[in-house]
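[job 4417] fold queue: 2 targets
>>> target A
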Amino acid sequence: MKLESPAVTRSMSIIRTWSTLNWASVFSVILYPVLGVALLVTMVVLGLALEGLTLRWWYAPLGLGVMAATIFLCNMGIGPLHRIWQHRAGEIKWPAQVIFMFNCILAMQGSLKDWVNYHSQHHRFADNPGDPHNPLESKVWAWMGWILWRDAADLDRPMPMWLKENKVVLFADRFHISLSLAMHFLVPGLIYLAVALSGGSLILLALLHACVIIGRGIQFHATTLGVNVFGHMETPKWVDYLLALLTGGEALHDHHHEFPRSALHLPKRGIWNRIVDYNGTMLLVLRRLGLAKNLEIAPQFA
């Protein structure tokens, strides 16, 4: 049953000042991607300017490969988070859940409780007042404004009932700050130390680290733009498929609100469908491996 929409839009009701900015979101949405670009540019400039540092031609394709792998891994967290933990399109066993949890941390998705609660509101009030990221109010707000300025009432919402017994989700939420700091700062620091002590190429490592940060930033903004903004607009097919490739199929939004519990966003058959909607394809693979079951598929996608 669709609830009656509030009279005031979210983009107008939430106070937006410097003091109400969510600085953790500012870092993940803006500052961290900028630092990644700055690191990449700095390493390239130093490699070209200093004789002691050497840039190899194969650094470029390797960096692009790392960037693509990062986008893929981030989607391997957001896809199951959205389709399984959010919409209950099926069940996945705990070994796969643990992997997906770490992929969500790589993607900087923050508290899973808040993620699910925000998305539940989106479906409840889609494109109406009450929708946390309604593009009809403001496309910039729907892209990232709603992440930068939060309503305390939203953050106070409890864990959704259907996730209260999920130990992996509860663990991820309880320690998401510690796990995020470890993955994005402690682990890279240890890798830099190991490479330095072993005499490896720090410039190559820094370039690859920058590619990881940039890849994660591309995936993050492709998702918020592709789903929250372009997913609710009429767009050319090539835009839909480009955003789908960057989001694992999450930006394929045409039928999602009609059948949100579908594990697939494109028909099951067809190589191109399974490439573009690779988040759904991974769920089919997990079912074959015995790590997923009871997958629901929309009738038009079966």
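>>> target B
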Amino acid sequence: GAHAPVFGYAGRFSGEKALVTMVDVFRRAKAKLQDAKLLLVGGADPGVSVHVPYWTAEQRVIEQAIRQMGLEDSVHITGVVPNPEDYYRMMDVFLLTSHFEGVPLVLLEAMASGLPTVSTAVGAVPRLLKHGAGIAVEREGLDLNEAEREFFADRMVDVATISRSREMGLMARKTVTRLHSLSQYRRAALKYFEKRIKS
């Protein structure tokens, strides 16, 4: 098809992000999209020294999984970067395989960059993606099981290859813009009422 799709993730390398699962679903998607790449942006947050040993250990586990699956040439780990948003431009599809999330800031950033997303259905993710900005994959347990991994990988292939992915990206950007203006509106309304109460 077109150019080789780049799947991507940005954020912390911590256990609940299930990045070994992400590497595995990427392996399955790559079986159908030979030249696909996976870009993992981030790692240990240098500002939070207490977590560095934990994240470094987590990164080693991820690197080991990449080697075991024979994906060294297809997966690139950037390490911590000053402006992760520069890397969103290199991606075609954003991925989240998290066990749990609230409102993932990295997802909002990816959406603002116009990226369609495939994610586990955690926290606010289904609401964020429901208007067509991406696909939220339901799962039974904390981690994707075998059948769910296959399904997740198939959705990755769909989003990377369908012509709709551009529409999804536009919808993603629109959703974030709407959310952003909503919160601005709420802030303005709050200020107005506070003023009224005080006067």
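[job 4417] complete. Note on B: The mean pLDDT is 90.
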